[in-house]
Amino acid sequence: MLDRPTLTAPSLAAPVRSGPEKPKLLSVEEAKALDVGTMADLFKEHINPGQFHFMKLLGFHKIKVERAEGMYYVDQNGRKILDFFGGFGSLAFGHNHPRIIEARRKFGEEGRHEIAIAFLSQYASALAKNLAACSPGELDMVFLGSSGSEAMEAAVKVAERASGRRNCKIVHAENSFHGKTKGVLSLTDSPLYQGEFRLVNNTVKVPFGDLKALTRAVESDPEIGVVVLETIQGGGGIIEAPTEYWQGVRALCDKHKVIWVADEVQCGFGRSGRFYAFEHHGVVPDVTALAKSLGGGKAAVGAMIAKRDVYMKAYGTPKTAMIHAHATFGGIGEACVTSIEALNVLYDEDLIGNAEDTGNYLLERLNAIKDKHPSLIKEVRGRGLMIGLEFQDFSRALPFALRPMVAMLDDKLKGSLSGFVGALLLRDYDCLVAFTEYNRNVIRLEPPLICGDEHVDQFCDALDALLSRGIVSIVKDFVKSQLG
Ligand SMILES: Cc1ncc(COP(=O)(O)O)c(C=O)c1O
């Protein structure tokens, strides 16, 4: 056995040469000790003053998280906040899962290398192998990156090259969300996010879940080479399409040699009760993408997974291999270790099975609450632990006399009862929920996959108690919270 060389720690002594003077920097300890007021000031001064306005509306600006464990955040006053937001699906393992923490600690102590673009990385190779093992059919070539957008950029590019049509057109769906980097922004159906940017113009938009419209588009335009669809639309407000639709998509793409990209960044990684949501429908896309919980709630990891023949058509020769090879941080060591351990925990703890069972219980309880408050809740939908709660348009639910007051607030909350409910769930019941980009009347529930029935009960009891206060008191309490 070879002796392991001793690694010398970097010198802590002050540099002897006279470089630039150190600017006034906060230390890690000082960062940790910042109070909530200073955090808010720095956010407004250096990050995003406009966003602070929304944080204030929802009451998020008063909270400094001191710790986070399992299903809960703990704030500066020791208050435990139940996390049904789950970082938009990034926290399958809850906060700080002990096995994931331990794997990262060990990796750091062993003094391993991080960057995977010179030498081979045992960790990047193993993660790619694991992702192939979790993926059905021939989905077994993996590109590693650091975000969902990066994974989706890789997915769209591999598909374009494999389609065999130069400058091919790409179909996407109404209300789609695929990220905000410039390529996939062109496939994200939001005038707000698309802003005034110059986008790629080879896109074709069709209604989501409408096979006839998709067929018409593909059959009338031979330049279409790629179809990009979220399997469950997240930003659109938790919208699903039936099995016949997905089977039709597969058959249509096969018939016309079009590459189907399934965006599973939000709905994948076990959240729907299967590893990939498309597995509910007995179909396999040509390319898919994961991110969010793939990083175990501790690392930024995204992955594109393609069928081998698709990948080889795009980048299979030495001449084409570097066209879209990993970026600097693709396959970085500690992130890969985190994901390897995360995938193992996902199966060891049967979190996918739990997502299905606990999700069914959550749906059952939410439907009972909807039946009790039909003037407030319009629909409960979703699958596994990816659930949408759509509220009624509250202007209709409200007594006539209160409508002018609400009209005043409409501007701020875009007419959404979900904003009122979310803000009061946090303030009065210690529950955090997520909102929805394109439909302000939908609350998204994407709790960690470690969620148990007791957490469902805590959340549903809180929601029921809040809604039982009635619309007038909810609106009045919200308005008071804004004045206080
Ligand atoms: C379906 C889907 N695709 C892509 C993305 C982009 O992921 P990221 O924010 O990690 O870039 C998201 C993010 O919410 C998403 O929900």
TrEMBL record:
Which controlled-vocabulary keywords does the entry list?
A: Aminotransferase, Transferase
Domain of life, per UniProt, equals Bacteria
Q: Which organism is it from?
A: Antarcticirhabdus aurantiaca
Q: Does the keyword Transferase apply?
A: yes
What name has this protein been given in UniProt?
Answer: Aspartate aminotransferase family protein
Q: What is the lineage of its organism?
A: Bacteria, Pseudomonadati, Pseudomonadota, Alphaproteobacteria, Hyphomicrobiales
